[in-house]
Amino acid sequence: MAATFTGRPILAGNCQGEALVSHGGLNTLASYQKAVILHSKKAVCSDQNNPDLYKQNMTDKIICLPQTIGSTTGGLVMMTICSQGSQPKALLFSDHIDSLAAAGVILSDIWLEKRIIVIDQLGDEFLEAVKTGQKVSIFEDGKVTVG
Amino acid sequence: MTINTLKLTPEEQSILDGEKGEVLAKAMKSIVLYGEAFGAKKLVEIVGNQHFVTSFGANTIKPYFEMMDELLAAGLKPKEPFTVDPRPMEYDAVNVDPLQKLVNKLVFGKQADYEKQLKELGIKSDRGYTCACYLDEVGNTPKKGAMLAWSESSAVVFANSVLGARTNRNSAGIDVLCAILGKAPCFGFLTDEGRKADWKIELKTSKLPNAQLLGSAIGLKVMEEVPYITGLDQYLGKELTDEAQFYLKDMGAATASNGAVGLYHVENLTPEAKESGDKLLKKDFQTYVIDDAELQRVFDSYPVLWKDLNAVPKRIFIGCPHLSREQLHQWIERISLALSERGLARCKVQVVLSTAPDIAVLFREDRVRVDHLKAMNVTVTSICPLMYMNNPLCSKEPIATNSNKLRTYSTARFFMDDDIIEIMCTGSVPQGGK
To answer: Which among B401, B319, B324 is positioned nearest to B363, based on CA atoms?
Structure first.
């Protein structure tokens, strides 16, 4: 049975996709470094410190995470993966969005006109419920269904 | 656009409405949306020289260069000069083989073009390329309480914690837009409430811990939250001496890269902790005790990404973040002494000491010292070691470092300072390095 959660849409939209779950903070630079350098269409996570995501394909996934962490190049990295077409479909934050992720998705939306759907504050229970590989549906009003 | 929380002045609103051009309106829209995401109620004026994280002309970050082109074409630039992070390469100091050089040109092929953009935008000088812009020799040292919109995680955490200035952990791109507008959305570390501590860190080690390891332990535990550290003043004292500041520089860089710490307080030492003490702790703070065993646990948890764990290191990088002048002196003395004690003239592995260009130039003026360093197989540079590791060929090399930031973002292997000295002198890695 599908579980429903409600968060705050930062960049609203409707979509469906496959969940990729990071229980720890997603280090944007460390995760996308290799994909950006190699200009890969498929972004495979290169963050050795993230056992949930390391070596997983992140492109077109709905990434479920608490927050992003790491270097302040994070927003620029996010912009770059959007421009090379290897971005996730959506970012679903259990916590409040952080400043680096917010910058990256907003700059992409305004300067590249490429949108990653973003909802934050979905709560810890969301991150406990959602599993990698599950089907996730996202709605414009901030509702998210899992399973 | 609909604005929910942020109250703009009439002038700010007119910029947003496009009365001062389409590009400036996009810049304003970006920082307004950014502020809205954090419930900012207003924009505040930022002061002085800003610092930007993007210093590298990587071919892949085309959308960023295009944004810069749009800004420059519209005649937009910051009111004050600024500094940026280190350059990616300096072949005179850190030589690479022809193939690596070729790959560098492919990876950082836009370096010259980007440096031209930075000059046009108003970089402080040709020496304004360092992550430690706040060092005296560089001079981008904000005053306590100054409102900023900096990026570069290690500079942000130093400015907030040690200098008592106020900046959020801004991303590349947002930093430039705020500098151009002269404004930043008021939220997070710009507010009194945002500077309160979520965590009490109780340091109960038997001696002063390695700064990079302590910072890593704190960062991995608290992530983006604010720690209030007790027990460190017993080792560092109650005054922000140069030595204490340089320790905090390295510790802070590790908190920011291993986690996402943008501000920490050290009881009896950092400016706000001296003023307000444990009143900085939020009511519902959590506690994390760090003792010798906990530091060992953190050290043991680091993955090692060298293919051959017993490989002879190709290079040793020291200076991420950039070394201060005093730290550079201390390392050179320490290396000289270690070689002399072992009856050696030369390190068996090249040692790369990275520091700000304004400091490196002082060393290079002294030819005798330069020759002495060369004889010891030690080089002084101003590159970003992380950028060196971004070259896919260089990342395959077994690189040793004492930087926990470099470890986090690359395949470099982390060693404690004593082990780094041992590697220099023996050319082999001791057991237990990470």
So the answer is: B324
CB < 8 Å from B in window 122-141 of A: none
Q: Hey, is the C-beta of A102 within 8 angstroms of any chain B C-beta? A: yes
- Chain A, window 8-67: residues with a beta carbon less than 8 angstroms from a chain B beta carbon: 10, 25, 27, 29-30, 33, 36-39, 48-49, 66-67
In contact, B303 and B433? CB cutoff 8 Å: no
Residue linked to tokens 């604010």: B226
Q: Are residues B120 and B134 in the same domain?
A: yes
Q: Which of B266, B301, B336 is the last residue of a domain?
A: B301
Evaluate whether residue B306 is within a structural domain. no
How far from the centroid of its chain's Cα atoms is residue B268's Cα?
Answer: 24
Residues 6+ apart with CB under 8 A from B11: none
Q: What pLDDT, in 10s, does the model give residues B351-406?
A: 999 999 999 999 889 999 999 999 999 999 999 999 999 898 999 999 999 999 99
pLDDT in tens, B253-291: 999 999 889 999 999 999 999 999 999 999 999 999 999
Identify the pLDDT of residue B165.
98
- Sorted by where each starts, the structural domains of chain A and their CATH numbers stand as 3-146 (3.50.30.10)
Nearest-by-Cβ selection for A25 from B53, B67, B260: B260
The residue among A99, A100, A112 with the most chain B CBs within 10 A of its CB, best to mutate, is: A99
Domain that holds residue B225: 196-301
Same domain, B23 and B70: yes
> How many domains are contained in chain B?
3
Q: Report ipTM for this prediction.
A: 0.93
Interface contact B327, partner A, CB < 8 A = no
Cα-based angle B200, B206, B207 (whole degrees, multiple of 5): 90
For residues B297 and B338, state if they share a domain: no
CA distance A70 to B4: 29
Q: What residue spans of B203-311 are helical by DSSP H? A: 211-222, 233-236, 242-258, 271-276, 292-301
Are B224 and B158 part of one and the same domain? no
Neighbour-count burial of B7, counting CB atoms closer than 10 A to its CB (0-12 exposed, 13-18 middle, 19+ buried):
exposed
Best B148, B171, B301 residue to mutate vs chain A (most A CBs within 10 Å): B171
Token pair, residue B32, equals 């307004």
Q: Looking at residue B82, what DSSP letter applies?
A: B
Average pLDDT, rounded, for chain A: 94
Q: Please state which of the ranges A70-74, A78-82, B251-255 shows the lowest mean pLDDT.
A: A70-74
Q: Tell me, yes or no, whether B168 and B215 share the same domain.
A: no
In angstroms, the separation between the Cα of residue A100 and the nearest Cα of chain B is 5
Q: Which of chain A's residues have a Cβ under 8 Å away from the Cβ of B170?
A: 72, 99, 103
